[in-house]
Design brief:
- The protein is built from 28 helices and 18 strands.
- The chain is an alpha+beta fold and 971 residues long.
- The protein has a domain of 332 residues: Catalase core domain (Catalase HpII,  Chain A, domain 1, Beta Barrel).
- Helix 2 runs antiparallel to helix 3 and helix 10 runs antiparallel to helix 23.
- 47% of the residues are buried.
Length: 971
């Protein structure tokens, strides 16, 4: 379940205006926000009920959790308010003489399609169509009270009754499972209500009375319950034998063939909490004490429901999602059951339509998982996971990930609480089913804004907002003592392409929007005697100044700025290549709507400032130019292949399909090539390959996964989307562990790939910003790739931050990026390193020696920090001794194993919609057959001789041998 964000130190309480409806309501958990989380969980339980019904009934697809079998569906009914409508009930669309078209659906209440003679409740759903932007859905059942007093009872009852289609199963559910779940007295009351409603003989749904059970607001008149009862005169119809499994629908068809079916719509008005409770759905509003006032007449006109048009209308209506929250705030549903309906109806409808998914965990996995957590919890006190044999270590890592999924996914978005009414959602644009949107909306079709551009960063750990510690210890001192690079420390297992790649990826994932320079700034005091020029040629000052982030704030606009919006989409959608909105994306394409990206002689097109026009242009340097150029060419290659294979595809379809293919290929390269290169162990290689294509074909492996984690038996692309209890987002903690600037070298030797001859040696400032493209053009893509391939990046460790980035010009400011990284992490309320570790279920440090054994680092840490609890997160991550052959720390790895699979698992285009129908068969084959090496060779085939033969393109390349061109030979 998604965790709510706890109140932060010093944050004043949010003041929220109380609505008219809330005067009558009481919230489970004590507040609308607390209740929302509970109801979301119950909505998930109802989706599991849908799955259970599907499995038990053998249905081909997921049906409604309730009211699965329609008896009648018509679009031509009319509702007319009485001219004598009482004055106090005249509000909104309820006006004397007003008449509206109505869609009517009458149904059996069960979630299983069964004969009409089976004991069941019956339901009526009305959609009153007031205008193009206003409708009102009224839902009723033919018994005056609910079997459930509240949402929890309702869901538990649905769970125990799901799929109980035989008499024996129903008896076991009602007399054994229900008392066990809710207690004897509650179960007895629920049985009485259910049996009273279902055992009564129903001859015709035209002769039934239907009650709302729950209340709705009726404008200033306050709460009402409504009902639909047969009009005083209702002639009989030709009887239909009850042996007919569909006798109720046949009876209605026969009745409507000869007469109108007419009902009175009536209301009962609220008296007080005792006589007319709003929150208790199982309590009756007695007719003797609360007058029943007729307000309107519903007429279903005489018609032949067997015509082709009528049957088509019935199919359309059966696909509708009726929801009591399809209304206006003036007629808002009231009470716990109705508030639960909002979450439940939206989730259930989306699940039924294949727009939201649920993946139940088998009971054996829950049991075995609990045993493994206990066993590894003890074992890891003595032996860390990375020192265990490979297969035990893999199981250990999988267990750690399950714990992190349970405890470390925190939703920070401000959600609607209490719920509000809304219009009927418009029909879904069909193109959204097969294309990524430009801004990341509609990846999750049931929550279109999830993960989109502008949505908030989530959290893996509860934020710790301490303004009093923003400058303690001074971040400039921390940088100079612990981060500054005196001499370059290489990471010899990697090449500089790996450094360029991760920045290329981070620009797709995360981007904190900065305020324009000079509008809102962070000021960092400098140590005594030190000055800083904050602008090129500026006057030295005693503070370091740089642009503040443009942050979101908690609801109400008060409190600390701890919620930051992502200026990129959170999805793995290639936005760094394609742009994050439609305007940018279209500007990058060939003129006249062509599918290909614009290139000049194979190079990116420079903008007026000299930096190429591409999806993400900030922090530009030669490494990014290489990556962007390579994948712009790859996009165009996919476009050419699609045009040739499918000449009927229009250019818009070619573009969007190519974007899907290239984005998925990038995700695959990162998963199965870059990550195993920087975490170079057999365990990681097996685990990440399994993430993409499934585990090795070993009966022992499959048995272990069947017992412990059935969902891992296939690669993630062959599963359903799963957000693991919290709406998908990337997190501030994720941003923190991907601060990998030490990978960037300060100096670059550019060489010829044919001879190995040095072309020139440049500093970082010579290959960044507007200076980048002239270097790229004269060196060429092949030589640039070769030069990066044979060079090592920096190790991610202390005292290895690039010197060039410690006096770096950006947007008219001179910044020390190491100081900026420290300050940003503190101000974004990311916990300090020791709290960070503890929050990820690692033992706390008790002394500096627990972090590192290096004498120089220990001395510097003691000089800078008063205690281990004060160590900055980034410093701790750099100082930590990583597992053998790991390029970053075990603590960072915890966030990685949680979020790496989540980026795949949450994305429908990398799970349920990763299929030929969306990508085309050619596109699926392109992704399957290609990786970083083949992409490089497609666009630079001349590099075949120097690329690694048996490892990834992120490992060091073979230097070209000048002797090969002079006739010299070697053994």
């Amino acid at each position: 379940m998604a965790k709510q964000q706890e109140r932060i130190v010093d944050e004043p309480p949010v003041v929220r205006e109380t609505s008219t409806a809330e005067q009558y309501e009481r919230y489970v958990g004590g507040s609308p926000e607390a209740e929302r989380v509970i109801l979301e969980r119950l909505a998930g339980d109802l989706m599991r009920v849908q799955l259970k019904i599907k499995e038990r009934s053998g249905a081909a697809g997921i049906d409604r959790a309730f009211h699965a079998k329609a008896i009648l569906g018509v679009e031509n009914a009319r509702l007319r308010f009485h001219t004598s409508l009482p004055e106090e009930l005249r509000t909104g669309f309820a006006q004397p003489g007003a008449e509206y078209p109505v869609i009517v659906r009458l149904s059996n209440a069960s979630g299983v399609r069964q004969p009409d003679s089976a004991p069941d409740l019956r339901g009526a759903a009305l959609r009153i169509q007031v205008g193009a932007e206003e409708t009102h859905d009224l839902l009723m059942t033919n018994h005056p009270v609910s079997h459930a007093a509240n949402a929890r009872e309702f869901v538990v009852f649905a769970q125990v009754m799901a799929g109980a289609t035989t008499t024996l199963r129903k008896a076991v559910a009602l007399y054994v499972k229900l008392p066990w779940a809710l207690g004897w007295s509650t179960a007895a009351r629920m049985r009485r209500n259910v049996l009273a409603g279902t055992r009564r003989e129903v001859r015709s749904l035209a002769l039934e009375t239907y009650w709302s059970r729950g209340a709705i607001l009726w404008g200033q008149a306050g709460p009402v319950r409504y009902r639909l009862r047969p009009a005083a005169v209702s002639p009989s119809a030709v009887p239909v034998p009850r042996e007919d499994a569909d006798y109720l629908s046949h009876e209605l068809a026969a009745r409507l063939a000869s007469q109108d079916v007419v009902f009175d719509l009536c209301v009962q008005r609220y008296e007080d909490a005792g006589l007319t409770p709003v929150e208790d759905g199982a309590a009756d509003w007695p007719d003797a004490d609360v007058p029943v006032v007729p307000v309107a007449t519903l007429t279903i006109p005489r018609q032949d429901v067997g015509t082709a048009d009528a049957r088509a209308a019935g199919i359309r209506i059966d696909r509708l999602a009726f929801d009591p929250w399809n209304t206006t705030d003036e007629f808002r549903p009231l009470g716990n059951l109705n508030r639960a309906r909002k979450a439940a109806y939206e989730a259930g409808s989306a699940h039924r339509r294949g727009r939201r998914f649920v993946t139940p965990t088998p009971r054996r996995n829950l049991v075995v998982g609990a045993l493994l957590r206990g066993a590894f919890g003890v074992l890891n006190r003595y032996v860390p996971w990375h020192r265990l044999p490979t297969w035990i270590g893999l199981l250990n890592v999988a267990t750690i990930r399950q714990v992190l999924r349970r405890d470390n996914l925190i939703d920070t978005e401000v959600r609607q609480a209490p719920p509000r009414a809304h219009p009927v959602p418009p029909p879904l644009d069909e193109t959204l089913l097969v294309r990524r949107t430009y801004d990341g909306t509609c990846n999750d079709l049931s929550d279109p804004a999830m993960g989109a551009l502008g949505s908030a960063f989530g959290r893996n750990l509860q934020p710790v907002y301490r303004p009093d510690l923003f400058d303690e210890p001074n971040p400039v001192v921390v940088s100079r003592e612990l981060l500054h690079r005196d001499s370059f420390i290489p990471a010899r297992s990697l090449n500089v392409i790996a450094a360029a790649w991760i920045q290329f990826q981070v620009h797709d994932w995360v981007d904190h929007k900065r305020c324009p320079p000079g509008t809102r700034s962070v000021e960092v005091p400098l140590p005594y005697g030190m000055t800083w020029a904050n602008t090129p040629g500026g006057t030295p000052e005693n503070v370091m100044r740089f642009a503040e982030n443009d942050d979101l704030r908690p609801a109400g606009g008060t409190g600390p700025p701890i919620l930051s919006a992502n200026a990129a989409s959170h999805w793995w959608d290639g936005s760094e290549v394609y742009g994050g909105d439609e305007t940018v994306a279209r500007s990058l394409r060939e003129p006249d709507g062509g599918a290909s990206l614009r290139l000049e002689d194979g190079h990116l097109v420079p903008g007026p400032d000299g930096i190429p026009i591409t999806g993400f242009r900030n922090n530009w340097w030669l490494g990014l130019s290489v990556m962007h150029t390579l994948f712009a060419r790859e996009h165009n290659a996919v476009c050419r292949a699609l045009r040739e294979e499918y000449p009927g595809l229009d250019e818009e379809s070619v573009y969007h399909t190519a974007r899907l293919v290239v984005s998925a290929l990038i995700a695959k390269i990162h998963t199965v090539e870059w990550t195993p290169a920087i975490l170079a162990t057999e365990l990681i290689d097996i685990g990440l390959t399994a993430n993409w294509q499934g585990p090795p074909k070993s009966w022992l492996t499959h048995l272990g996964l069947w017992l412990a984690d059935t969902h891992a038996l296939t690669g993630i692309p062959r599963t359903l989307p799963d957000h693991h209890g919290a709406p998908y987002s990337l997190t501030e903690d994720f941003v923190t562990v991907y601060r990998m600037h030490p990978l960037i070298p300060d100096d670059y030797e550019l060489a010829d790939h044919r001879s190995g001859r040095r072309l020139e040696t440049l500093g970082f400032n010579d290959v960044q910003g507007a200076a980048t493209e002239p270097v790229m053009r004269r060196t060429g893509l092949a030589n640039s790739l070769y030069s990066f391939g044979i060079a090592h990046p920096g190790a991610i460790t202390l005292r290895n931050f690039p010197r060039a980035l410690q006096a770096f010009e950006r947007d008219g400011e001179i910044i020390d990026l190491s100081v900026v990284d420290l300050v940003r992490t503190r101000r974004r309320a990311v916990p300090r390193y020791n709290d960070f570790r503890a929050g990820l279920h690692q033992p706390r440090l008790r002394r500096f020696e627990d972090l590192t054994s290096d004498p120089d680092s220990l001395a510097r840490l003691r000089d800078v920090y008063r205690s281990v609890d004060d160590i900055d997160t980034m410093v701790g991550l750099f100082a930590e001794n990583p597992p053998e052959r790991f390029g970053f720390s075990d603590t960072a790895f915890r966030v990685f194993i949680l979020m790496a699979s989540r980026r795949l698992q949450s994305d429908r285009f990398l799970t349920v919609d990763f299929r030929p129908e969306i990508y085309t068969p050619l596109g699926m084959d392109w992704i399957a057959r290609n990786g970083m090496t083949s992409v490089i060779l497609r666009h630079c085939p001349e590099l075949a001789a120097v690329l690694p033969r048996t490892t990834s393109a992120f490992a060091p390349w073979r230097p070209a041998r000048p002797e090969a061109n002079t006739g010299t030979t070697h053994d």
